[in-house]
Amino acid sequence: MLPHIPLQEVSEVVARGVNYLVSLTESYPYLSYAGGAVFAAIVTQWLAERRRNPRGLPYPPGPRGLPFIGAFYEIPETKPWAAYKEWSKKYGNLIFYKAMGQNYLIVQGVKEVNDLFEQRSAIYSDRPPQPMAADLLGWKFNLGWQPYGPWWRRHRKAFHEHFNPNVIQKYDPVQNRELYRLLGKLLREPARFTDHIHNLFATIIMKVTYGITISDDDKDPWMTTIFESLQSIAKAGIPGLYLVDHIPILKYIPSWFPGAEFKREAERGKKVTDRLVMKPYEAVKESLRKGDAEPSVVAALISDLPAENDPTRAEEETIAANIGAVAYIAGADTTVSAILACLLGLAMNLDAQRKAQAEIDEYVGPSRLPNASDRPSLPYVDAIILETMRWHQVAPFGTPQLNVKGCFSEVNTETGLAIIFTAIAHMTSEDDEYDGYFIPKGTTVIGNAWSILHDEALFENPSDFNPDRYYNNPRTLKPDVTFGYGRRACPGRFFSDRNMFAMISAILAVFDILPPLDERGKPMKLELNPTDGLQS
Ligand code: HEM
């Protein structure tokens, strides 16, 4: 039985639509058919939604914007994580708006995050579709971009097997060797510390994933492949830039079709993506065949593949190749950003630095460097890592960045921002009701980790870098949300955390981290000024 829909509501919608159409067709008479079709589609959608929400529950509060385009012009362009925190004073911890036909829900607040992403994870774990980037350019190789379902689950399981907390210590030897090289480089060229740290983590992840050694310079062929692929995705990932993202059926038109330039562009991009995924994978396969492969995640995945004649072999092989590529793409610059933020925090808080160094001197002593297994004896360094992840969100919107060093700044920083935004946001896979509100299926759901971790009610002076808050009070809220939510929470976080601890404790054991000097030789005043990209 159809639910009762108040006549007044229907007539208001119809009247608004008719007014709009009349004004449009007066100026552009040929638009009347197209306008009629769009209007019919909108009314149909509206009626369908009323059927799915028979009690007529309202959406959560938020700006309602203008007809058709919704709140498009109200979406904050700069530092959206901070802007939405401001909005929460007016709308609360759940903010809902529509923009260009898409529903958005911003979730801020520990309770709301837990209730939706964790307790209802079965319906809050999908990703918004991206026909151009994910399907046509082939970025659905990346489990972070895959829709929630069996294919994603198989990738996630394979990834977890090699990056879960019980196995990651086997990567310590690679990590320690590279770490010692880093210390040497920092001693020789301290001013190039960002380059050294970027190179260090790229080296570790390529070695762990493929057993491949990359060179120190920017011309390394493996890095070039990654760079090219990120350049190709930079434009394709902008939500809504391509018509095919609005009308997905267009992805089936042939590339020779007049006007189908996007298909030709996608074909070029797909070749680059295939190189990114397959080139290092084939190199490992070849090394295994020759018997000179170094131990690595991909070597282990290949060795575990079913027999050649097994019907699941082809799929398992695709998963193995995809896992290798995603480890680098999702992992490299995220950890680097966190380490750089930590060094900044330490340079701003010399007292914290002294406390950590005293702890290292006492428990580790001068005859060796600390490493990841010293963690239980170094609670102050542990507090520094926790405080770093709270203080500075690498991905304040639960959206890690995907670029290699400098990639998006050469392509377009804003572009990078857009890709990441849609790629890693969650999406509801069912209609839901929460706290008296209706949340439709297909809503893009974004957790605002920054707003939670800078909540004055939970953290005194949240913008200060102050590891004492964790050291003195272990019950202080841990910064877990910085790694995302529910079933999609970052599966690389244990690996990243272990690397970070090893690096920061080793750096603190041998160096002081001080602010640069100004032209008069005085230490410069430092401040945290996160960039506007979703990775800061
Ligand atoms: C400081 C370091 C890192 C931060 C802050 C971070 C943060 C995140 C966040 C916020 C997400 C999205 C979670 C969600 O959708 O709710 C994510 C996803 C992901 N991260 Fe990380 N990450 C880091 C390091 C790494 C590393 C080192 C790796 C790989 C070795 C990695 C692999 C992934 C993958 C594969 C996903 C997609 C998960 C999925 O969609 O199921 N991350 N990360």
From TrEMBL:
Essential cofactor(s): heme
UniProt keyword Transferase, yes or no: no
Signal peptide boundaries: none
Record-linked CDD domains: CYP64-like
Keyword Chloroplast: no
PROSITE patterns listed in its UniProt record: CYTOCHROME_P450 (PS00086)
Pfam families for the chain: p450
Pathway membership, UniProt: Secondary metabolite biosynthesis
Assigned protein family: Belongs to the cytochrome P450 family.
Record protein name field: Cytochrome P450
